[in-house]
């Protein structure tokens, strides 16, 4: 295995790892609000979060690329205050990946929270526990399978991402060239052996992740 | 006479309810004395659970006031509404709501405001739970869960004990034995207990006073032997 192969896989893991971590931190509060709060534009928020599941990745990638342009407000702000451009950079791909993977993190977390009987929260409140303490000591421990599912689904989805990455990041080795793009590239160059190696690694990782998810979901059914 | 005793809980509230038979208004004006085991009797949809949830602070009344031992818990005019955390009530839910991630012992410890292992031992011993203390709730029978829920509710040393049909899911034999457990819990608490029930025999055996709710309104109240002639 040459260093390109290893670097591409490491970059793929780095992108998926950072995306998963960032989404977990911002996804949990969003999932909490969507699970327990009622507000008039909730359906709109839920629809927006779910959009990446139905939208062609190239559409999202295109809009992200437009937004990254220094001629537009967001791209201009980033260039002015951070002296950088997001298009065709790892950071740009990471941001697009976070947006594109939102539903894969938030939906399992939201489902996990709503599956916990409301009386658990109410019992904790009547026992004098604050919302924060209830969240960390009652809700989180009783939704571990949902958390594992959310992390695994997000990670697995990021590893296989193609359309958004190629639109926003192109195919720059060491910067934006992830495994799914490398497979396409190697096939175009008729290097089927290398394409097969990449494919096999992605296949095994995805299989392991899905096996973990199904195993955790079986435990979840036994919990309540 | 009950009304000569020290009045602990004053309730005068209204709240609209949506039941299977349509909209109705829960309207209750009650005074409950210290040490009373008070029963809320009525068919489903009468407003019993709604009243219990209002007392716990889980539901907000549309108007009225609630006070406990002189402390105002709710007053719609003065815009006072204490949170469930501030009211310190022991609430036993119909499904017991034991936390599945905690053992029996941990469920009781979690409820304590000041951690005292001796108090946990006392409760485990009182409700015959020593052998089950390391078990998780999913492994317990309905009767065992009920005893753990009672012990947990008492561990917080609550002002009020609110029991929402605690025996409805149990068979006859288990009901009879656990009625005694509830009476023991009431004695331990040495304050006011409100019990929701739709079983006349249960009310006769346990309650010092009962109100009968129908479609949100109090249609009868008094001692059980007077109400259920």
Write a short abstract of this structure.
The complex is a heterodimer of chains A (224) and B (229). By secondary structure, chain A is mainly alpha-helical.
Which SSEs are present, and which pair or pack?
The complex is a heterodimer of chains A (224) and B (229).
Chain A: H1 3-36, H2 42-54, H3 57-68, H4 73-82, H5 90-115, H6 118-126, H7 131-139, H8 144-159, H9 163-168, H10 179-188, H11 192-223
Helix pairs in contact in A: 1-5, 1-8, 2-5, 5-8, 6-7, 8-11, 10-11
Chain B: E1 7-19, E2 22-33, E3 37-41, H1 48-56, E4 63-68, E5 71-75, E6 80-81, H2 84-87, E7 89-92, H3 104-111, H4 117-126, H5 142-155, E8 160-164, H6 172-189, E9 192-197, H7 200-206, E10 209-214, E11 217-222, H8 224-227
Parallel strand pairs in B: 3-9, 3-10, 7-8, 8-9
Antiparallel strand pairs in B: 1-2, 1-4, 4-5, 5-6, 10-11
Helix pairs in contact in B: 3-5, 4-5, 5-6
Please provide a written account of the structure.
The complex is a heterodimer of chains A (224) and B (229). By secondary structure, chain A is mainly alpha-helical. Chain A has a single domain (3-223), classed as MetI-like fold (Orthogonal Bundle). Helix content of chain A is 79%, strand content 0%. Chain A has helices at residues 3-36, 42-54, 57-68, 73-82, 90-115, 118-126, 131-139, 144-159, 163-168, 179-188, 192-223. Chain A is globular. Chain A starts with a helix and ends with a helix. The model of chain A has no long low-confidence stretch (mean pLDDT 91). By secondary structure, chain B is α/β, with parallel strands linked by helices. Chain B has one domain (34-58, 85-227): P-loop containing nucleotide triphosphate hydrolases (Rossmann fold, 3-Layer(aba) Sandwich), CATH 3.40.50. Chain B is built from eight helices and eleven strands. In chain B, the strands form two sheets. Chain B has a six-stranded mixed sheet, with helices on both faces. Chain B is globular, with a radius of gyration of 17 Å. Chains A and B meet through helix 6 of A and helix 2 and strand 7 of B.
């Amino acid at each position: 295995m040459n260093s390109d192969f290893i670097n591409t896989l490491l970059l793929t893991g780095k992108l998926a790892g950072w995306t998963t971590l960032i989404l977990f931190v911002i996804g949990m509060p969003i999932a909490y609000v969507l699970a327990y709060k009622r507000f008039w534009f909730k359906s709109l928020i839920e629809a927006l979060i779910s959009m990446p599941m139905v939208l062609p990745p190239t559409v999202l990638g295109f809009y992200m690329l437009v937004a990254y342009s220094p001629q537009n407000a967001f791209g201009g702000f980033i260039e002015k205050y951070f002296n950088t451009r997001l298009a065709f950079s790892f950071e740009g791909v990471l941001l697009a990946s976070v947006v594109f993977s939102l539903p894969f993190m938030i939906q399992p977390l939201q489902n996990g929270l709503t599956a916990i009987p409301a009386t658990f929260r109410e019992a904790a409140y009547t026992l004098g526990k604050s919302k924060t303490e209830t969240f960390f000591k009652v809700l989180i421990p009783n939704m571990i399978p949902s958390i594992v599912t959310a992390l695994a689904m997000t990670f697995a989805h990021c590893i296989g991402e193609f359309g958004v990455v190629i639109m926003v990041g192109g195919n720059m080795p060491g910067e934006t060239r992830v495994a799914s793009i490398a497979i396409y590239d190697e096939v175009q160059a008729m290097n089927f052996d290398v394409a097969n190696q990449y494919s096999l690694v992605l296949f095994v990782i995805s299989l392991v992740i899905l096996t973990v998810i199904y195993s955790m979901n079986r435990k979840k059914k036994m919990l309540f | 006479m009950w009304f000569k005793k020290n009045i602990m809980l004053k309730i005068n509230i209204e709240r609209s309810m949506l039941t299977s038979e349509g909209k109705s208004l829960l309207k209750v004006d009650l005074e409950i004395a210290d040490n009373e085991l008070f029963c809320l009797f009525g068919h489903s949809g009468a407003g019993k659970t709604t009243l219990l949830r209002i007392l716990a602070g889980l539901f907000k009344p549309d108007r009225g006031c609630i006070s406990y031992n002189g402390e105002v818990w709710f007053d719609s005019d003065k815009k006072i509404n204490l949170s469930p955390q501030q009211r310190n009530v022991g609430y036993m839910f119909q499904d017991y709501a034991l936390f599945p991630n905690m053992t029996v012992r941990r469920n009781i410890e979690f409820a304590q405001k000041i951690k005292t292992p001796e108090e946990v031992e006392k409760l485990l011993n009182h409700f015959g739970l020593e052998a089950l203390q390391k078990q998780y709730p999913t492994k317990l029978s309905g009767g065992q869960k009920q005893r753990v829920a009672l012990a947990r509710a008492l561990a917080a040393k609550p002002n009020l004990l609110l029991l929402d049909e605690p025996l409805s899911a149990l068979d006859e034999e288990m009901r009879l034995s656990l009625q005694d457990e509830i009476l023991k819990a009431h004695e331990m608490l040495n304050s006011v207990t409100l019990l929701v029930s739709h079983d006349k025999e249960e009310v006769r055996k346990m309650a010092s006073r009962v109100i009968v709710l129908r479609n949100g309104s109090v249609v009868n109240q008094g001692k059980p032997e007077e109400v259920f002639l």
